[in-house]
UniProtKB/TrEMBL annotation:
Gene3D superfamilies: Immunoglobulins. SUPFAM superfamilies: Fibronectin type III. GO terms for molecular function: cytokine receptor activity. Residues 8-103 form the Fibronectin type-III domain. InterPro entries: FN3_dom, FN3_sf, Ig-like_fold, Interferon/interleukin_rcp_dom, Type-II_Cytokine-TF_Rcpt. GO terms for cellular component: plasma membrane. It comes from the Eukaryota. This is INLR1 protein.
């Protein structure tokens, strides 16, 4: 029919990163700079029904955050993307199936450390999208004396919990680090956060 097709997006991948589920792609070979992209998704609950994603219609960027788009975090989903320019469009290109609950990759939490006279209060903040805040995110906390390999572990703290550590018997430079954890089929963990170090009971 002499119909001109745009080059399709490449490397279409549903990636889980830092608690989010994001569709990423690269422009098709020889794409012009004014190409836009449109994304849809399909869940295994309703195969064959591709659902529009309003915030990823005719976008210039090459990613789409789908975290809070899926109504069910416990069902496998996949997404597809096409390029559009002028009156032309490319074929759709589909990602693989992923399930948020099973495939989520965790980021380390950010520690907030508050030193009182004989106590340290520690809490952790997570870069969570609102729709996944209700899941049972936890964190494990390590405390060690700088230079020592022996770590005291405080495991399985709920996300909003504050860990309080009595420091009466501790002197010197102590470090704290935490990792996010989450139970799906087995326990998943993030890497540990960069250490936060504090000087305790320093008689100066």
């Amino acid at each position: 029919s002499g119909h001109v097709q745009l080059p399709p997006p490449q490397n279409v991948t549903l990636v889980s990163k830092d608690f989010d589920m994001i569709l990423t792609w690269t422009p098709g070979e020889g794409s012009s700079p004014n190409v836009t992209y449109t994304v849809r998704y399909e869940s295994q609950e309703r195969m064959g029904k591709w659902i529009k994603v309003p915030h990823c219609k005719n976008i210039h960027r090459t990613s789409c955050n789908l975290t809070c788009v899926f109504p069910n975090l416990f069902v496998k989903v996949r997404a597809r993307v096409k390029a559009v320019s002028g009156g032309f469009q490319s074929p759709w290109v589909e990602s693989q199936f992923k399930e948020y609950h099973l495939d989520v990759e965790l980021a380390p939490p950010v520690l907030n450390v508050n030193v009182k006279e004989n106590l340290i209060h520690v809490n952790a903040s997570f870069p969570l999208a609102t729709c996944v805040e209700s899941l049972l995110w936890m964190y494990d906390l390590n405390l060690w004396k700088a230079g020592s390999t022996h770590k005291k572990q405080y495991e399985g703290n709920f996300r909003k919990d504050t860990v309080t550590i009595n420091t009466t018997a501790l002197t010197g430079n102590y470090c704290l680090s935490a990792r996010s954890s989450f139970q799906s089929i087995d326990f998943k963990h993030s890497k540990f956060s960069p250490p936060v170090c504090v000087l305790l009971n320093h008689k100066g």
